[in-house]
Amino acid sequence: MSSEALIILIYILVLASFLGFELIAKVPPTLHTPLMSGSNAISGITIVGALLACNEMGYTTISKWLGMVALVLATINVVGGYTVTDRMLKMFKKK
Amino acid sequence: MSSEALIILIYILVLASFLGFELIAKVPPTLHTPLMSGSNAISGITIVGALLACNEMGYTTISKWLGMVALVLATINVVGGYTVTDRMLKMFKKK
Amino acid sequence: MSVAIELAYLIASILFVLGMKMMNKTKSARKGNRLSALGMFIAIVATLLQIDAISMVEILACIVVGSAIGLYYANKVEMTKMPEMVAIFNGFGGLASFSVALSDYFLRTEVNMESIELVTVISIIVSVFIGGLTFTGSLVAYLKLNGNISGSPITFKGQHPINLILFLGFLTAAFFTVLDQTDPMLIIILIVIALVLGILTVIPIGGADMPVVISLLNSYSGMAACATGFILNNNVLIVAGSLVGASGIILTQIMCKAMNRSLVNVLLGGFGQTVNEAQADGPSITVKEIGVEETAMLFDGVSSVIVVPGYGMAVAQAQHVIRELMEQCEKRKIDFKFAIHPVAGRMPGHMNVLLAEANISYDKLIEMESINDEFPNTDLVLIVGANDVVNPAARNNPQSPIYGMPILNADKARTVIVCKRSMGKGYAGVENELFGYPNCLMLFGDAKQTITKVVSEMKEM
Amino acid sequence: MSVAIELAYLIASILFVLGMKMMNKTKSARKGNRLSALGMFIAIVATLLQIDAISMVEILACIVVGSAIGLYYANKVEMTKMPEMVAIFNGFGGLASFSVALSDYFLRTEVNMESIELVTVISIIVSVFIGGLTFTGSLVAYLKLNGNISGSPITFKGQHPINLILFLGFLTAAFFTVLDQTDPMLIIILIVIALVLGILTVIPIGGADMPVVISLLNSYSGMAACATGFILNNNVLIVAGSLVGASGIILTQIMCKAMNRSLVNVLLGGFGQTVNEAQADGPSITVKEIGVEETAMLFDGVSSVIVVPGYGMAVAQAQHVIRELMEQCEKRKIDFKFAIHPVAGRMPGHMNVLLAEANISYDKLIEMESINDEFPNTDLVLIVGANDVVNPAARNNPQSPIYGMPILNADKARTVIVCKRSMGKGYAGVENELFGYPNCLMLFGDAKQTITKVVSEMKEM
Amino acid sequence: MKIGVLKETKTGEKRVALSPDVIKQLIKKEFSVAVEQGAGTGSNFSDEDYKEAGAVVGSIQDVFASDVLLKVNLFSKEEVAQMQNGSACMSIMYAYNYPEILDEMNKKSIMSFSMDAVPRISRAQKMDCLSSQANLAGYKSVILGANYLEKIFPLMMTASGTITPAKVLIFGAGVAGLQAVATAKRLGAVVEVSDVRPETKEQVESLGGRFLTVEGADEVKVEGGYASEVSAEFLQKQKELIQSKIKDSDLVITTALVMGKKSPILVTEEMVKSMKKGAVIVDMAVESGGNCEISEKDQIVQKYGVTIIGESNLPSLLSTNASQLYATNISTLLLHLATKDGFNLDREEEITKGVLITYEGQVVHEFTNKILNK
Amino acid sequence: MKIGVLKETKTGEKRVALSPDVIKQLIKKEFSVAVEQGAGTGSNFSDEDYKEAGAVVGSIQDVFASDVLLKVNLFSKEEVAQMQNGSACMSIMYAYNYPEILDEMNKKSIMSFSMDAVPRISRAQKMDCLSSQANLAGYKSVILGANYLEKIFPLMMTASGTITPAKVLIFGAGVAGLQAVATAKRLGAVVEVSDVRPETKEQVESLGGRFLTVEGADEVKVEGGYASEVSAEFLQKQKELIQSKIKDSDLVITTALVMGKKSPILVTEEMVKSMKKGAVIVDMAVESGGNCEISEKDQIVQKYGVTIIGESNLPSLLSTNASQLYATNISTLLLHLATKDGFNLDREEEITKGVLITYEGQVVHEFTNKILNK
Ligand SMILES: NC(=O)c1ccc[n+]([C@@H]2O[C@H](COP(=O)([O-])OP(=O)(O)OC[C@H]3O[C@@H](n4cnc5c(N)ncnc54)[C@H](OP(=O)(O)O)[C@@H]3O)[C@@H](O)[C@H]2O)c1
Ligand SMILES: NC(=O)c1ccc[n+]([C@@H]2O[C@H](COP(=O)([O-])OP(=O)(O)OC[C@H]3O[C@@H](n4cnc5c(N)ncnc54)[C@H](OP(=O)(O)O)[C@@H]3O)[C@@H](O)[C@H]2O)c1
Ligand SMILES: NC(=O)c1ccc[n+]([C@@H]2O[C@H](COP(=O)([O-])OP(=O)(O)OC[C@H]3O[C@@H](n4cnc5c(N)ncnc54)[C@H](O)[C@@H]3O)[C@@H](O)[C@H]2O)c1
Ligand SMILES: NC(=O)c1ccc[n+]([C@@H]2O[C@H](COP(=O)([O-])OP(=O)(O)OC[C@H]3O[C@@H](n4cnc5c(N)ncnc54)[C@H](O)[C@@H]3O)[C@@H](O)[C@H]2O)c1
Question: Which reaction does it catalyse (chains A, B) (predicted)?
């Protein structure tokens, strides 16, 4: 990776982190758990990495096996996370 | 510019814009004018562009002249902007 | 990587940001979650488009298995078990990042036999460390919450020094890994230390602090994803990961504040002293606690409320904030009354004076005889600083000094919340068994302060 | 471009973000501004390091000239002329971006004779358009505020169609420029249209709306800088420019809301109708509105508050919620008092009865004579349903039926918020000019309801 | 300029025209003040207090030798006789009721100012003794009623049973009426109010009282803040409403005045009969004829099991406060009209025009003349 | 079982032992009730009201022919003389003060129950007439004081000046004292309280009053809710504190009782001299000797410019409510002791043991015996 490319990635890291800070500045306590759960689902974005890791030729490499383990786990995280969050938030519906 | 490089610039644009939105979500009215003035000074960042534009060989090119005009203007904007903002904010000092 | 895919990632990133923003408000939270799910979907589909046909079968199989497990548990779990669920999902996320990092490491060192750039090595180490720690930490949190291991803090001497030594060991191993990227021994050391540290930092923490820990681990798993993004040079991982990492830290801080703990305390992993030991002597009663938010949610869901004020309301001067509570309830069309026990307080008419001061109209105040039959049909009774006047011992226990005194049948209501500072006794100095009843929840704290919080929670709903 | 310089830019960007964040709170605003100035300094120095020695002399000369002018005017200008100053500085910023873009254009086409990439061409056009428009627009705003041209809206028939035609003309010329980058005629057309549009969109707008316009133009100049960043492929320009662009839009929106105008209205440039005709008969007063959230924020930032209660507080029965407001303020260590006018309300001691009911201790209530000298040193006065008792006409206007009545000098405070339902008159039936004072903001609505909202906003902060 | 303060002579009057605090301020403005011995006793101001404040405490003769004489109540014939020719005097006069006193004053060319005639305009509020005294009277009416009532005001739920709150019915929501509402409400009573002026509804509610709306109420004319006489139809409807309410009332306070007229009868003998045993009526309009048919001035009547209090001088029962406020009122008016060098009248000015009754041997006050010449 | 209600004979007593409402409930339980003619007049209960409730209203002879006689105050020798041998009677007796009456009762073997001796335990609260009457007395003491005071209670900022709030100083935060705090506070006064029992601090503050803490207060012993005598040292310190506070007070209310003893002197003559002119003292302990040195029982004393009210029977001034509550108390006790078929005593039971004074010709009450045999 060129150092310029790295710097640009750092730009993105920094800006996104700031954004993360700002976005959660004020949350009512009732939303703490759903929010935690929802952002946990987002952190399942590592699924993209897992997919790419799986995309290796041949069967026997440890890399591929690790990738597949990662893929299953990340999928659980993503699918389960979003579903659970949605269930929680359903309760907030005004009667 | 490669399209990948462009996309990365767009990432930065998007994230910074979001951040801009979030940062100013709630400002007390008394701070409206100082904030406007302060962010105006930041927009004087174009001074960097002006500096780069001035950095051309030879004297006669229109580019260079434009660059120098830009530099003077941008400097006024930056220096004047920050100074004026500071003066305004001095008034808010807690007694 | 084609521009189209990069654009898809950009859109996914934007959707994550918007989704997270909308999760901030009760009204839009659900839509926000769906938006972020949409972003995830787009990111996954875009990635799948890059996949070689050969790997596709296994990949889809993995996805199907993962989805099935995720869906099954997410739908099966009871509402009360949500925190456990979040913990374990989070652990899986951490483990996934960990695995991806290792996968990439082995791919480069073992398969391609190439040497790795510095940035990438560091990223891999970070990802392994944080991912592994997140995994075991979350697992411990899950087991604690689930009751598989004791919820109370498990502490031993030298905890902190051991953690420190392990961490320094990790740093050393990391340093050598950077120098010699191909030694699998070093990597195994790194892995083991990360996993052990996850266990060691969470095990000494008490059950009540678990939500904070989970939130922090959640932030960590975001950071792990971010590190993975650096390994793979992938923007969407960086954006999403750092969003979660940063927002998780803030959320943790907010939660700490709500629990009156400092973040430093949490970050050092040194917290875990138990919360409010009920200081009751004599035959102690096991009580269930309820928090301010849940109280507010309970109020939000009922259709009839009776408030039983007592001397504690007078001491706390909580009458004004109780009027606000009344206003909030009436806005929600909840039937709201006060049950006035004739000897509540310390002088005849004590409650009357205070409630009149708070401008509560006389027709809301119901005498004991008239209201006692209404309790069984009442959804929620809030007892504010009253004790003796709702003590069922007056009915049940001929030995009790208050036996024979008529009491308010608050215990007969569907749910009873008792707002008082502690397990302290009332004027008569006797234990109150009501507090241990199955339909009774204790809301500990000064009446004015806690109810103020309940009201502001309700206002936000 | 070396890594060090890129890192410097990164640091500058971070400082801009932090600075802007800190500008949000009265307490930290000044520090924030300095932080952002530091960022700018770092960016400039880093850039200078790239400069060839040959150009250095002229560059330094330009910087010295610019700094001297900027410093001179910034220090000379009176406080009341601040908005003009901001407008003209902003115009210069726009013109600078415009010039840089043109400079780059000519450099590539005339000097280097190379063909330009699509992205760059578009960026140049955008930069020229926005920069030019910002310049002339700001100039007009400056002249209007300075009184060089009439502050009242200058309108003529067909304004909107002409603007539209010009804009379409610009788009056409832009299209052809993209096709043929070397035709200077096209560039001149673009320049002229941009400059003319700037004038035309601002000239029809009235003086009272100028702050909104300036804020919008400020946002535009940020966008111009951002476009310039795309031309030069420079991250710090993009970050800083888009920060300013986005925050400027939001700020404009907030200001519109405070003035009760819609942003669409402003964005279309079709604004300029005077602000909410106060439904008063007789000489109408132009007032500035404030919302609940901003009120809460104002309270959050001050150190002394005086509340002036009047008959409206009694009608709304707002005394209890005002006590809550007091509690919130006292939590923030804000000095909080009540100024009791002897004839506030409709009977002697009316306010005393109500405030005593709300349990506000007597020592918070200050008589008119004692408190009147304190107003000039008070950050914020909240007038709750009072009208006649704070009407400066009693001091100033011998024709007024209340002339000669002693009043509370609430108008002397730094900021005054008036909470009442409408522009309705008080007991004496006279207009209150205070409401139109520059330091006065109207918080319309029933006193109890609005202050309840303010309090719950404050609780969330 | 020398100011004289006489001791009040009316029976039961405990107020005094100037308080030591106010005298201090006058002395600062270089007036001199003479106070009759013992003038302040009823208000708990001792002669020492006055001396400390800078006044001369002297015999009645000393006081009569002043440029302006101040009192609370109207000067008697004897007092006028002792005044110096061409001097001035100020008090609550209700001048139109006492033409004979005015004649005496005119004979001696005495300039008189009436405190009750201060116009009810914003800038004159500080001189308005009708408001200041009515305000105290409103408070006192409730205390007095509460003291005579054999029940307590607030709702009380006790081990020995629940005591229901007292019901207080108030007629007239003027200054006195509103203060009565506030005081009764504070003590925990349920308060209902009847008034002819519809705008008082909001005012009553702002104090937590319930307003009894009579239909046809919009026909009432209001002149300068005072209710003018109302239609017979209105009164009839009001009566019916009251009849239904008064039966349950524990305390009735009547404050309904119509300026310059006999006050309306609102509580008839019939109604009193229908009331609960032990109920109490405080008739604050008793001085001008009474709102209750069977109230008697300065008497406490027990009839049909009801106690009817006809105290005509309620402010005097709160003499300390009443004198403090009255002193502020009268001194503010005096300072408006005079400097240390003497009176300085602008006879076109609204307040001066409003309060000046006799001047250079003539009754110059419009309203007084209107009533007297009728 | 026949219950007889006698008319009270004590001067100034307007209460009555049973109210029509309570009689209705007794009749439902198949008791029969005879009420002496005119017994309820003072409390605004007419003979008709009693008849409607189901009582027989008859002559005094009819009433004496009952199984149990009820009164508020102790029976006189003459009344005991007219009672049937072996019948029963109940009233507030303060038996230890009247051995001669007890002798008379014992001679006729009359069973007597004293209302003031109800033990202060939770389940007896409904019979506790000391609380119910003290509560009313506390309210009344403030109303009475406010009525005698020549100032108003609340702070009032008016056009004619600001009236500062009245300062009320209350001694003793028992039932009466606390109700006085609440009432004075409601009316807008600034209230300060002194008590020997430290736990009353929190109670006073819960009503918005300020508690004056005397150092050494922890030494006070409390027996069954009553304050026992306190150390001389404490009293001295308390005195000093009071001396500094009482000078500024407008209204002083004293409620400090020590059971079975003369009440402590808290306000000395010296202190009264130091008070403001026009101040008022209400001495609620006057019956048992008074907390104020110069208060006189049932007199209103004016001394040193201070009004000292020594009304010994404040509840009687709120006769309607007082009778209602007393009737609940006495009927609850009666129902505890008897059924429609007569008394049914369990002499080991705490309440019965507490209230039974004479039984089968003997004084059987421990505390009474203790005092009498001293
Ligand atoms: N009404 C009368 O006339 C009278 C007179 C004398 C005695 N009594 C007796 O007083 C008792 C009255 O019963 P009650 O139920 O009203 O009171 P209680 O039984 O005395 O209980 C009051 C409770 O309030 C809680 N508390 C105190 N301060 C508080 C605060 N700031 N915030 C929240 N809670 C607070 C205390 O628990 P924590 O310490 O855990 O917070 C206490 O258990 C009866 O036993 C009655 O017989 C009544
Ligand atoms: N104190 C006395 O003894 C006495 C006696 C008689 C007359 N006065 C006269 O009364 C006046 C008192 O002055 P003031 O400033 O207290 O009152 P004011 O001048 O009468 O003004 C009251 C204001 O309250 C607003 N208001 C009414 N209801 C409201 C609600 N629910 N929420 C928010 N605002 C509400 C009204 O404006 P909107 O309609 O726009 O909401 C009105 O302008 C003086 O002129 C005085 O001379 C006094
Ligand atoms: N401008 C000022 O600053 C100022 C000063 C003082 C008073 N005022 C106003 O003047 C008004 C009158 O004050 P006041 O106390 O002297 O009034 P008042 O003593 O003349 O009358 C008392 C009240 O009785 C009412 N009333 C008359 N006839 C009635 C009837 N038949 N039934 C029921 N009620 C009846 C009147 O409407 C009035 O409210 C007040 O409301 C006050 O707002 C204004
Ligand atoms: N268990 C129950 O249900 C119940 C029922 C009624 C009363 N009580 C309690 O009994 C207590 C006593 O009630 P009471 O009103 O009959 O008391 P009381 O009339 O015997 O005494 C009045 C008060 O005077 C105080 N006092 C005595 N000496 C004093 C001194 N030198 N200076 C200042 N204060 C002095 C006492 O402490 C007491 O508070 C009450 O506080 C109440 O809580 C309990």
Answer: NAD(+) + NADPH + H(+)(in) = NADH + NADP(+) + H(+)(out)
